[in-house]
UniProtKB/TrEMBL annotation:
Residues 1-25 form the signal peptide. It comes from the Bacteria. Residues 52-137 form the SCP domain. Keywords: Signal. InterPro entries: CAP_dom, CAP_sf. The keyword ATP-binding does not apply. This is CAP domain-containing protein. It comes from Luteolibacter luteus. Pfam families: CAP.
């Protein structure tokens, strides 16, 4: 299994210049600990057939919102009580699916109810069922082509088990989404005029996993983002301490 390609840079070297203004809507998602654990379990499973994957904030939002909705409205289905299916919920988050992905069905989502609220149990449940195993591990050509992932989790509240949601989709239609190694080498983090960190790159709409470190020894997954139409996105206020950044991306 090939994890996302990575490029590392130092904020201390890159924060000397300024960028003024960031256009477009912000698309960013920070997974909670259980969502991040499940992503790593799925990505690194020895049986995983996808050669490379990338997390996407829109798919993660669709997954988390649906997990939370199952607890709030006490149901467990790909079609919610309002009649909205999985494909449509992904489209509603702004993720462009292929035209043959009809809104009123499910081509993208698997769900698991975990009584002990652990990603490991959710994965065990999925792997014990052939259709779900095919989806999670990309064991068919159709699912193997769904290389962009979303993970959502909601603790048990309305139901007697926690809800885990896995979503996968092809690369976003009409958006590049990917980065070549040469383009990734041009990713930079700079501070703007008001002290916010701005990640910018040469390819708008690129999907990028952002990891932070203060020592280059231990990396913390910070968030996954989509660069806006100008190739930028805010990472929030500049920290007081020196930081390094490592960017995961999908390399075509």
């Amino acid at each position: 299994m090939k994890t996302p390609c990575f490029k590392t840079c130092s904020l201390a070297l890159l924060a000397s210049a300024s960028l003024i203004g960031v256009g477009g809507a912000q698309q960013s998602f920070t997974p909670n600990a259980k969502e991040l654990e499940l992503y790593r379990i799925v990505r690194d499973d020895p049986q995983q057939q996808r050669t490379q994957v990338i997390l996407d904030p829109r798919l993660c939002l669709a997954a988390r919102k649906h997990a939370q909705d199952t607890q709030a409205r006490k149901f467990f289905d790909h079609r919610n009580p309002s009649g909205v299916w999985s494909n449509e919920r992904v489209l509603n988050e702004g993720y462009p699916l292929p035209s043959n992905y009809a809104p009123n069905t499910n081509y993208v989502e698997s769900m698991a109810g975990s009584t002990n609220d652990t990603p490991a149990q959710a994965m065990t449940l999925w792997k014990s069922d052939v259709p779900h195993s095919n989806h999670l591990l990309g064991k068919t050509d159709f699912y193997r082509g769904q290389v962009v992932l979303g993970i959502g989790q909601a603790p048990k509240s309305g139901l007697s088990y926690a809800t885990y949601v896995f979503i996968s989709a092809p690369l976003p239609v009409g958006e590049n989404g990917t980065l070549t190694a040469a383009a990734a080498a041009k990713l930079v983090v700079k501070s703007d005029a008001v002290g916010n960190l701005i990640l910018s790159g040469p390819q708008p709409k690129s999907i990028i996993e952002v990891n932070r470190s203060t020592s280059l020894g231990t990396w913390t997954f910070d968030r996954v983002v989509v660069l806006d139409a100008t190739g930028k996105i805010s990472l929030g206020p500049k920290p007081a301490a020196k930081e390094f950044y490592r960017f995961g991306y999908y390399q075509p």
